[in-house]
Amino acid sequence: SAELRDITVAVVREKEKPFSIEQARIRGPKDDEVLVRVVATGLCHTDLIVRDQYYPVPLPAVLGHEGAGVIEAVGPAVKDLRVGDHVVLTYGACGHCNPCSGGHGAYCKDFYGLNFGGGELDGSTAIQDPHGHPLHDHFFAQSSFATYALSRENNAIKVPEDAPIELLGPLGCGIQTGAGAVINSLKVGTGSSFASYGAGAVGLSAVMAARVAGATTIIAIDVVPSRLALATELGATHVINSREVDVVEAVRGITGGGVEYALESTGRAEVLEQGIAALAGLGVIGVVGAPKLGTKAAFDINDLLLGGRSIRGIVEGDSVPKVFIPQLVQLYQQGRFPFDKLVKFYPLEEINQAAEDSTKGITLKPILKIG
Ligand code: NAD
Ligand code: ZN
Q: Where are the domains of the chain?
């Protein structure tokens, strides 16, 4: 494990500046780590808000947290994974705190440090530049904007070899977040009504999951017409362009008074306020969109109290990745969760183009093809 391997990485060196493609070196796997040859990595909105330092991950850093690839080497304490296994990399969790023990790794006591800390919990990094200077890494316990990535055994999820590995990375974050929010967190049920505020990668994953779950009223809300058109194709029964109509009135009109389940994935306070206002009695809105730290939203407390409404924050769709990611792969293979319709592939070298296309609403889910 002292041996260093040459790799190519995309680095963020300064806040709000483009990624730069650089050469670097990574150490081999120790303990329960696996070294993964990255085949492809999704670009999630969270990579961009960290590039822009909404969350202060220390720079320079190698981001990337929707990696998928093939195990190249395993550390001495790895138990279940083997060289050659196909894996999807997901978020890091310690695996033994109270939330982890209860199956809630997304709320691990060390979640922030393990995913946004910029290194191991002791501050060390596994990647260095050609001069031997450390590059911050371990982003979501993987830093997969790279030709090779280290993860721990518990966040490398084995997937079947007959599934297209280059497509599967986004199941590790954005897609499991939207789908899991609907299935695991909100538990949207057969015959119910659901509204997705935001029809980006997360919001459309929620729409597909709501159809799988049997919701009969599925409303997608966005400001980009092409996204609303795709939402219809993926199972939305109604779409609302919030630039054109009063969203709260429209949702109330469609549902006859208010929607039972909703998910906010735009990261905008005023949209959360609309979402709360358009809930039915006993309705629940899940919050996954991430605004800048310190962002406040306003609502009338009585709108919650009278009617028994609730708001809940959701990380990674409350998913137990080892269970949920293979389920999503199966649903995909059965044609019931066609998330490939969200995807456009780019070479790693075009990461800045992918980011721009995502921000402009041209591409829903960029995937960087790496190896
Ligand atoms: P995205 O940019 O693809 O989607 C956001 C969507 O919101 C876009 O389609 C955009 O057009 C739409 N939008 C913007 N303003 C709007 C408005 N006023 N009304 C309606 N729609 C509007 O991003 P994404 O990859 O889908 O991620 C969504 C959010 O979820 C991001 O904030 C991301 O950081 C966060 N995220 C959270 C978790 C988690 O675990 N909680 C995991 C992954 C991503
Ligand atoms: Zn993400």
A: 4-172+338-369, 179-314
